[in-house]
UniProtKB/TrEMBL annotation:
Annotated organism of origin: Maritimibacter dapengensis
UniProt entry keywords in alphabetical sequence: Lyase, Signal
Extent of the signal sequence: 1-21
PROSITE patterns named in the record: PROKAR_LIPOPROTEIN
Protein name, entry field: Adenylosuccinate lyase
Record GO terms (molecular function): lyase activity
Length: 53
């Protein structure tokens, strides 16, 4: 095996472990445009209804 193949194999073995160690990927957040809110049941943005209008 040459050095290039060995380094490539080592990088491919280590990268998934480094990606899993990153804490910022634990949760995802959904944002909707103004006038819409996130509906967890349908996993979509739905138009916000004005109660007093």
């Amino acid at each position: 095996m040459n050095a290039k193949t060995l380094l490539t194999a080592a990088a491919l073995a280590i990268l998934p472990a480094l990606a899993m160690a990153c804490p910022s990927h634990d949760t995802a957040s959904m944002s909707c445009k103004d006038g819409y809110t996130f509906d967890a049941d349908s996993s979509t943005c739905v138009e916000t209804k004005d109660v007093g209008a």
